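Dear support,

Our group has been running a series of protein-ligand predictions, and this particular one with fe (ii) ion is the one our PI (initials K.S.) wants archived with full inputs and outputs. We had some confusion internally about which version of the output was final, so please treat the block below as the authoritative record. The input we submitted was:
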Amino acid sequence: MKTPIDQLLAEHRIIEKALRALAGLCDRLERGEQVDPDAFDRIFEFLMTFADRRHHQKEEKCLFPALGAQGVPRDRGPIGVILQEHCTGRALIAQMRRAVSAHANDQFIEAARAYVDLLSEHIQKEDNVLFRVAQTLLDERSMRSLQDDFNQAEAELPGSLAKYEQEAQEMERAWAV
Ligand SMILES: [Fe+2]
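Confirmed final output from the archive:
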């Protein structure tokens, strides 16, 4: 049976495509290639609306409270670390956007590489630790209620999983080297 955790895992695979696209943009800039200025807006839009707003918010507003109800603390342990990393990720997106506005390629590359490293490790941690804890702790009823929370959260957001997956795929195809 598919669980809401499977949905988060599938979203991680989509985010990883966007991370490979972002790393590709850095590679191209380092080689001295011209990058279409629209590419930056496109990847920022994806990271802000899909990775952060859609995915991280579902974790923060739905999954973590469900785990909290099973006694997993929010302010320390694995959830504490993950929340801190979500904050660092948001700060790095802001840093990348500032660098692009200032036409500062080196600063963009520095922030973008840090973001790719952070999110890649973060996803591994969630896949291998937190989501396994969730699969053990949440019974069928809690999973059903978590799925309802996900559906409700998504109904309030624009776009669809299929649309974001296609977008990530196109960006990866265009920029990853
Ligand atoms: Fe995640």
